[in-house]
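Hi, does anyone understand the following?
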Amino acid sequence: MKFAYFGYRSWAESILRELEESEFEIDAFTIPENEYSNNNFREEEMKVFNPKEISELDLDKYDALLFYGWSWIIKQYIVDSKVCVCLHPSPLPKYRGGSPIQNQIINGEETSAVSLFKMGKGIDDGPIYYQENFSLEGSLKNIFGRIIEVGSKLTEKLLKDFKEGTADLKEQDESLSTIVKRRKPHESELPIEKLKEMTGRQIYNLIRSLEDPYPNAYLVGKDGKKVFLKGAELENSSDD
């Protein structure tokens, strides 16, 4: 079987690297250089293309299309004619939409999930192949490492199940669905008025959810200069 893999975020490219030793033939595609990607994947392993021109690719030769860390809407005729698989880092149907990891951490969630699902007509609403939990504790680097580990394992299992014809799907429970919006850079500001209303845990969660490569949390001084908060530690006490 032959698969096409579309991704551009660093964690998605790392999952691709983990799949290099699999028995399957995988053609990989990415977008031009951007701040969320690894530099070492460009020339040799991933074909660079304009994501708006996906319909110009020869997709008929692939048994399934994998979209990992992907931010563009796939045209419906492609979704209807091909098996399109997406990895979403949330316990779907919760946290559909943009910036799922950041929104979960900011909301105080301690556990998330890697969800592999078949694309449908809406945003992140298709039936699920597999879903496995992972911890949201620690830095973003730690969290992305867990997404890579779980995502690689579930993807390899799914490709094998495709080959054996045993891949199964489970519909999402619409009564449990929640939708979040992609965060904008200006939302990373921490005004003094807002800080006064936040607990230490809430401030810690906001800062670590916005670690590199995302727009870091920041303060603005009276001179208008921004102070970026690259990371944080939370005091370990009984009041936590």
